[in-house]
Amino acid sequence: MDMERLIYIIILLYFILGAIGFYFINRKKEPAVAKKSYIKLVTYFLIINILFFSITIQPFVFHLLTIIIIGVACLELNLLFIKSNSEHLSFFIVSIAVFVVFALCFLHFSFLKKELTLFTFLILSIFDSFSQITGQLWGRTKILPKVSPNKTLGGLVGGTIVSIISAFLLKDLFVGSMAGLFIFTFGTLLFAFAGDTLSSLFKRKYKVKDFNNIIPGHGGFLDRFDSLIAGGAWAALYFQFIAP
C-alpha cells in the first residue's frame, strides 16, 4: 500500500506538471478552445483515477472496465461503418480483425499481476499525456499529416523521453532485468503509437474527426483508449511469449 500511495503521489505531480503545460498552451488561445482543452484535462484526470484505483484496489472492477471499453469501442467502429452506408468493406473487415486480436490480448492483459498491469497503465498514461503536451509546446514537424495531423515529431520524442525516464523510476513494479525493462517499455510505446495511428486511419477513411462526443473533450471511447488497448495487448504478448 505504501508503494501504491507513493505512485499516486507521483501521478499527482505529473498531473500538476501537465496542468502547467496546458496553461502555457492555452493562454493565447480563444476562450472557447481553451475551455474545451481544460475540460479534456479534467476528464482525463478522472479517467486516470478510476482506472488507477480499479487496478490497485479492486481488480475485478478493472476486468469489468476492460470489457466495457472493448464493447463500446467495437460498437463505435461498427456504427461509423454503418453510417457510411457500409463503404470500404474490405478495409472494415481487416480493421475489425485487427481490433479483435488487440481486444483479446487487452482482455488477457487485465488478468496479469497487479504490479505489471499498473506499470503498463502508468507508462501508457504518461506517454499519452506528455506526447500531447510536448507536441503542442514544441512540436513543429508533422509525422503523419494525412492520417493524424496533430502528431508531431516533437510530441513523439517528448512523450518517449518522459515515459522511458518514468519507467526506470517505476522499475520496482516491473519483473525482469533492466534490459527487459527497456525492451518492454519501448514495445509498449510502439504499440501505443500504432494503436492511436490505426484509430486515426479508420476515422480518416470514413471522413470523420471524432467517433462521437460521449466523453467530454475527447472523441469517443476508442479515441481515449486506443493506446491503452494496443499497449495492453503488447504487455499480454510480451509476458506470455517473450519475457524469460
Q: State the share of residues found in helices, binned by percent.
A: over 70%
Q: In total, how many beta strands?
A: 2
Amount of beta strand: under 5%
Radius of gyration: 18 Å
What does the model show?
This protein has 244 residues and is mainly alpha-helical. The protein has one domain. The protein is built from 8 helices and 2 strands; from the N terminus they run αααααββααα. It has helices at 2-26, 31-56, 59-83, 89-109, 114-138, 153-169, 178-205, 221-242, and strands spanning 142-144, 148-152. A two-stranded antiparallel ribbon has the order 1-2. Strand 1 and strand 2 form a beta hairpin. Helix 1 (2-26) packs parallel to helix 5, helix 2 (31-56) crosses helix 3 and helix 4 crosses helix 8 (221-242). The two termini are 28 Å apart. The mean pLDDT is 91.
Question: Outline of this structure?
Answer:
77% of the residues lie in helices and 3% in strands.
What key attributes describe this structure?
single chain; 244 residues; mainly alpha; 8 helices; 77% helix; globular
SSE order and pairing:
Blueprint: H1 2-26, H2 31-56, H3 59-83, H4 89-109, H5 114-138, E1 142-144, E2 148-152, H6 153-169, H7 178-205, H8 221-242
Antiparallel strand pairs: 1-2
